Amino acid sequence: MLSVPARFSGPEGTANGGWIAGELAGEVDCDGTVEVTLRRPVPLGTELTLGQVANSVTLSHDGVVLAEAIPVTEDLTPPPFVPFNEAALAEEGFAGLRGEHPVPGCFVCGLRAPGDGLRIFPGPVARTDLVAAGWRVPVMLGDDGAVPRALVWAALDCPSGWAHQGPEGPGLLGRITARTYRQVYPNGTYSVVGRSEGRDGRKLFGTSAVYEMDGTLVATARATWILPR
Predict the structure, then answer these.
(1) Which CATH architecture has domain 84-226?
(2) What are the boundaries of each domain within the chain?
(3) Distance CA 65, CA 165 (A)
(4) Under a CB-based contact definition with an 8 Å cutoff, are residues 170 and 223 in contact?
(5) Which InterPro entries match (predicted)?
(6) pTM for the model
């Protein structure tokens, strides 16, 4: 069973897509790349059922599958590294700060109090096709002193949507495929980078990555976002 705490919210009343995807990925018997498809919004504070069929892990409510995670073998190509100082400077152009934020309570990119949300505000990087933010990691310890995997997946979430910089915001996360290479530690500083990889109608495609200060790749993802009708 799994219940999503209210803190890890995305759109009102539902879980942040990256966080729940990371939680589900942690249930997959795989040290490599995992693909998570979000079929329906995941409610907060509700008893949800974890299931396993062969190599896949599902999350369900009242018999309806909300999300599914599977291991995959494909390689992911991250967007290029942006130094922390440049990434932090890019935050000034974050679309969610310049107008009405479509999801102000989002755990990742929402206007939450410091230490409550991740406050990752990806803005355009000058003379590139990238968006980036400086991630100042709040104190959220795991059992081994590192940030839990679900929080790293959450950090990979929103930047790939905001890379499109559309007036309607990033839409809803439909699928995320990610791999983590290194751990993230509380009170650390990291660069989070996103890039648009095009669109097909209501579907937006993007990539994202988390980098250490010296440019070492920590984690990367590819995502599909769905705009509302």
Answers:
(1) Roll (3.10)
(2) 17-72, 84-226
(3) 31
(4) no
(5) HotDog_dom_sf
(6) 0.95
